[in-house]
Amino acid sequence: MVDTGIGSYFKFSNVDWPSMGIATWETVWMTVVSIIVVAILGFLLGLLLFETTNSDAFLIKALNWIVSAFVNIFRSIPFIILIVLLLPATQIIMGTIIGAKAALPSLIISAAPFYARLVEIAFHEIDHGVLEASEAMGATKAQIIFKVLLPESLPALVSGITVTAISLIGYTAMAGAIGAGGLGNTAYLDGFQANNNAVTLTATVIIVIIVFAFQLIGDFAVKRIDKR
Amino acid sequence: MIEFKDVSKTFDAKVGTVHAVKDVNLVIPDGKIYGIVGYSGAGKSTIIRMLNGLESPTTGSVTVNGSEISALKGKELRDQRLKIGMIFQHFNLLWSRTVLENIEFPLEIAKVPKAQRKEKAMKLVELVGLSGRENAYPSELSGGQKQRVGIARALSNDPEILLSDEATSALDPQTTDEVLDLLLDINKQLNLTVVVITHEMHVIRKICDHVAVLDSGEIVEQGPVLDVFKNPQQTITKRFVNQETDSGSAGDTNTAVEELLKKYPQGKIVKLTFHGEQASLPIVSETLRQFDDVDLNIIEGNIHQTQDGALGSLYIQLLSDNQQSIDGTLSYLQTLRVETEVIERG
After folding, report:
1. B135 at A interface, C-beta within 8 A
2. Residue B179: C-alpha distances to residues A160, B1, B172, B187 (Å)
3. Among residues 151-180 of chain B, which lie with CB inside 8 Å of chain A?
4. Interface of A with B in 148-187 (CB under 8 A)
5. Does A140 touch chain B (CB under 8 A)?
6. Cα pseudo-dihedral B154, B160, B165, B169, rounded to 10
7. A138/B80 Cβ within 8 A
8. A222 in Cβ contact with A159 (< 8 Å)
9. What are the φ/ψ torsions at residue B181 (nearest 5 degrees)?
10. Which CDD domains does the protein's record reference (chain B) (predicted)?
11. Beta sheet of B2-13, edge-to-edge order
């Protein structure tokens, strides 16, 4: 006898709490590890895009075009398709196509181009006069990047990483549904397919809490950094 | 010494080739404040940016203290830039850094050790009159205070030259004068060469020793500030000088002169121009004492301070039944070396 009424959502006695805990940990782990890699990779890609725009040199123009095309293509592929598309590559890189580890390549490849665009926009928002002043003081390219571009765009970089992290949490749930583990996996397999609505609801609530936590931490950090 | 030799700069634009700078030859001596004045689009910014290699000339050469800036690249150019400070219209401070950290920034670029950086920056905070505000962020400062930080920052690597790119154009008149006084003070204290570009003749009059007038990329007139103010040659220079000396009342003076000509047909309207010490002598009362049958009517007058002394002009009407007395008055004024100009009735 399967109970599918509204009441079924609140039968928390059906929830396997230890495995819910493991699933939560898997989701947080996937999000945090991929966000760290995305932050670094996205920053570098964004910097490359920023530094190669408005150049007259042919090679630099070509580089900008290639990076830009790469970013646009991977940003356009729906995530669920990207996972399937990357299965062979995942097998080679991670040695498996099952579990939280296997989700990382597709999570990173889908989020990094998105964050790269946000980084590029953040850099373009810096007052050109400040960059010119730094150049006039005799700063090297590296000094301009680390002493001007990075600190002056930090609030935008942090709020960008917050937005990216939140969409990554959504992606982990999707990845979970096809075998990556985590709360998405729990909600789909143990909740939906086992007709256990309380599990689905619990997984949802936990995901919402994780999203809110990321948003709060991000907003707090931006408030602390921004001296404008 | 700064030298521009046959400097031209052209840009390729959609409308064809644009001559931003045309055959500029300029020598700026050490320790002076040199002003370049022109309307926007005249090429001032391009010229000042050639001094630190932010722009390079299409033809010609720019030499600063013996090294040809226009030929430098990479590390050599960066090392040269350390010796040239620059301040900007919009200050261009880093909002993420405090006052002290902003002033330390060029020292970080020059890889000065931390303890030394802080010590130097504190001295500069004091020099520009911002003691007590060193831990404030730029967003907490007024425009004038921001420009003071800009000046301190520009001085932190002990530059040989200070470039001022419309540094007071975003400030109100009172703050403008404070910042100009600071620049003048620094020029005297540190014997620093200062190159100022501006569209305000007020800035030129107040702090500059020499001035060059730029029109459509060409220098149309240059010389000591007092000479240019006294005797402007080109129409554009006259316009700039009038902007400052006539305080916008040129029209009023003409009307007043016409009225007086009508009212006293027998009188003579004379424009007197004073400069240097004469501006502070009691010329009018002395003249009247000499010729007691002459009446003198003051129509309009003004006086302005420049770096080389005062400059004034006075419109007067001489009235007398005795024509000889009037002629005598005029020649007496000549002996006082006041420039006199009789305005004929039209």
Report:
1. no
2. 40, 24, 10, 12
3. 157
4. 148, 151-152, 154
5. yes
6. 70
7. yes
8. yes
9. -60, -40
10. ABC_MetN_methionine_transporter (cd03258)
11. B16-28, B2-13, B59-64, B67-68
The helix, strand and coil proportions of chain B, stated in percent and rounded to the nearest 5, come to 40, 30, 30
Q: Does B86 touch chain A (CB under 8 A)?
A: yes
**CATH code for the part of the protein at A18-225:** 1.10.3720.10
Listed by start position, the domains of chain A span 18-225
Indicate which of B109, B153, B158 best probes the interface with A, i.e. most A CBs within 10 Å of its own CB.
Answer: B109
- Closest to B100 (Cα-Cα) out of B115, B85, B121: B121
Chain A residues near residue B78 by CB distance under 8 angstroms: 138-140
Where does residue B251 rank: exposed (0-12), middle (13-18), buried (19+ CB within 10 A)?
exposed
Q: Which residues contact B97 (CB under 8 A, 6 or more apart)?
A: A151, B105, B137, B138
* 3 state SS of B39: coil
Encoded amino acid at B228, one letter: V
Predicted ipTM beyond 0.90: no
Using CB atoms within 10 A of its CB, is residue B322 exposed (0-12), middle (13-18) or buried (19+)? exposed
Smallest Cα distance from A66 to chain B, Å: 27
Specify which residues B304 forms β-bridges with: B311
**Residue B109 at interface with chain A, using a CB cutoff of 8 Å:** yes
The rounded distance, in Å, linking the Cα atoms of B227 and B273 is 13
Q: Give the residue-averaged pLDDT of B176-200.
A: 93
A14: which DSSP letter?
Answer: G
Which residues of chain B make contact with A130, given a CB cutoff of 8 A? 92-94
Nearest residue on chain B to A151, alpha-carbon basis: B96
- Most distant CA atoms of chain A, gap in Å: 78
Most confident of B176-180, B266-270, B334-338: B176-180
Contact B187, B194 (CB under 8 A): yes
Domains, chain B: 2-245 (3.40.50.300), 250-343 (3.30.70.260)
Q: How far apart are CA A152 and CA B137, in angstroms?
A: 13
Using an 8 Å Cβ cutoff, are B87 and B165 in contact?
A: yes
More confident residue, B83 or B335: B83
CA proximity to A135, closest of A122, A147, A144: A144
Q: What is the pLDDT of residues B281-300, one digit of tens each?
A: 777 888 888 888 888 888 77
Cβ B96–A129 below 8 Å, yes or no?
A: no
Closest Cα of chain B to A137: distance in Å?
6
Contacts of A85 (CB under 8 A, 6+ apart): A77
DSSP code for B133: -
Mean pLDDT by 10 residues, chain A (228 residues): 71 83 91 95 94 87 92 89 89 85 90 94 94 94 95 95 93 85 86 85 92 95 91
Cβ pair A133:B86 closer than 8 A: yes
